[in-house]
Amino acid sequence: MNLLVASLIILLIITNCITCEFSHRIGFRHGEEFTEQRLKIKQNIDKMNS
């Protein structure tokens, strides 16, 4: 279970990096959205682990 969660997080971080890089080239800023998503994901993981 923890391995699955860890691989999901890694996948998410990689996708975020790619999306960030892509959006920076276009000129968009998605920093706040990503921060909110990360917070929600962390909360969900905490709920799953507890």
Which sequence of SSEs, written as H and E, runs from N to C? HH
Beta-strand percentage range: under 5%
Number of strands: 0
The end-to-end span amounts to 13 Å
Query: What class would the helix/strand composition place it in?
Result: mainly alpha
Instruction: Sketch the major β-sheet.
Output: none
Q: Give the overall form.
A: elongated
Approximate helicity band? over 70%
Rounded mean pLDDT is 77
Note poorly predicted spans: none
Rg, please?
13 Å
Number of helical regions: 2
* Domain module count: 1
Protein name: Lipoprotein
Question: Which terms summarize this structure?
Answer:
0% strand; mainly alpha; Lipoprotein; elongated; 50 residues
Q: Could you provide a short overview of the structure?
A:
The protein is an all-alpha fold and 50 residues long.
